Amino acid sequence: MVIDYASPGIFTTLDADQLPLIAGLPTDPVEICRVVRGIVIHPFEAATLSLPKERMAEKDLRPASAIVGALTRLDAAPLEVQRPAHLRVVGTCRHFATLSCALLRVRGIAARARCGFATYFAPGQAIDHWVTEYWHAGERRWVRIDSQTLGGDQVARPEDLAPGQFLTGGEAWTLYRRGEIDPDTFGVAGTTHAWGAAEIRGNAIRDLAALCKTETLPWDEWGRMTASYEGKTGPDYDLLIDEVAATCAADSVEAVDRLYRSADLRFPDDVR
């Protein structure tokens, strides 16, 4: 197997001195993700608190080890201890998904982050979002779980999202190419520019990277992604995104790994 989803990756490896913090983690995948719900706070929620301005920079942290480091500087308790809101690390949906992956993988559970769009935050819109998948051996399927909304009422069963409630970037792209969705209803909440086909293209590539265990930040751009956002790419780039979408949907780790090695798609080493 080219990609081992049960082992840590570049952004999901914890430091050796952080491992005692996870000794008390539960073993059930849903309960592991519930732990993350108690230690990360979304920037929209954090903005309602009287936090120092510099705390908002926590949303830019890439490695899970850095996220845990920021958390334990606020409160050194083990990770299974739920923090009050002001002592949680500030992070986007990507933080929830990536940290969930890190904790699942450290327990030997195959897991991966997925980048795409949630259809349950705003009526008629698909909002830029990240979730986690874990492999359910008994049912022989990947289960999509939204750690950010566990315990909330945004979606009926965040521990096992139903088809269509979350679309990966590639899934959204395929629907767009078939003419089955309005791309202008897909985008980033709170922005006016990050909507439409370019955002779907971007999330298709970010999802490919996540399938290769490189969980980028939601606003990372590389290859021709910036040109795409500026409307400067053409049919050849769309054909490449077609290939990305089809490869991710086929779920062959060999094909995913092979495609990701191309210069247009691989996350640059200098950012790593």
TrEMBL record:
Residues 90-146 form the Transglutaminase-like domain. This is Transglutaminase superfamily protein. SUPFAM superfamilies: Cysteine proteinases (SSF54001). It holds the Pfam family Transglut_core. The lineage of its organism: Bacteria, Bacillati, Actinomycetota, Actinomycetes, Streptosporangiales.
